[in-house]
Amino acid sequence: MAQGPSPPPPPPPPPTDNDKTQKTSDIIGTLRPTRLFKLSKSDTYVTSLDFDDEGLLLIAACSDSSLQLYSAQDGCHRKTLLSQKYGCHLARFSHHSESVIYASTKVDDTLRYLSTHDNSYIRYFKGHSGTVTDIALSPRDDTFLSCSTDNTVRLWNLKSQYAQARLNLSTPYLAAYDPSATVIAVASASTSSILLYDVRNYDKPPFATFDMRQYDPPPAPGGNNIPEWTKLEFSNDGKSLLVTTNHIQGHLLLDAFSGELKAHLPRPYQPTWGILRSAPSITPPKTPLGQGDTSISPDGRYVVGSSGADRDAVVWDTQGRVSKEAERKVIRPMCSLPCDRGKGAVTLWNHRYNMMATADTEVIMWLPDEHVGMKPL
Rounded to whole angstroms, what are the CA distances from 177 to 34, 173, 227? Predict the structure, then answer.
């Protein structure tokens, strides 16, 4: 006998709390320290942080010439990788979670491509004759940029030891790819400008130049008149460009298309000596190296960073109220993220998960805590 059609499968069970994706706006004010990792010595500093593409691993470059590898998933220390002969700074994961690129701080200015699996070098990238001040990986492929005090920006590919292209610029200390990997931004400190290049026409003049002099603070009497910029970062939606600074007036949030200033993002406290890391434009550096103390959330709305005080982090809502203060557009921090240990001299958001990491003489992982509320300033 012929059978009728089989009954439809039962509906899926309702989602549990663990299945729900939390919006950044729902958890941003509840981030709290959950793991703290001490370094080998109290006078050792973390100079850079980076998460791998999957957001499962975190690597910290340290002033004692070591690379510290952590599991962001398990909240534990994985291993120590030593670079005693050459030093290390600006460690960046490639698109493979078992390899990193980093800048040398001793002997020479070679970039080194390291396997974290067996602590062996895969390749060296030679060419710079001055300190490397920034490394930026393309989000699309195995190309990357390096900036140096030798007044060049070089374009590399992980498969070749030779640079594919070179830009000769004045003090091009910071660089960043936009999320589509079609635009490169290069910040020139001495000219107070940001240059935008088409990746496909890297050897052509920039298609846009943002003049930042109008946003610079008044020079201090007898001080260095070069801007103390420490980081350049596009938001994930490609609409904003954040210039992290050591200035009292705060960071600069720009429209990524026009270069127009959206707002200053001032810290709630005036930083004291030793809280912030030296900008690449300050030579010799007055404080340990770093890579900026801010990071943009994955949704592009929030900026997290140092408060300027000893411990707490703060959050700026870039869609929040813009006030006019002394003829400047300003967005004040919306809340504080309390921390009773460690400073946030280096700050980085995990773009795969709702977590972040901060570091100074310790590495701290932050996760949302459903049992706390937002702490207003």
Answer: 31, 14, 21
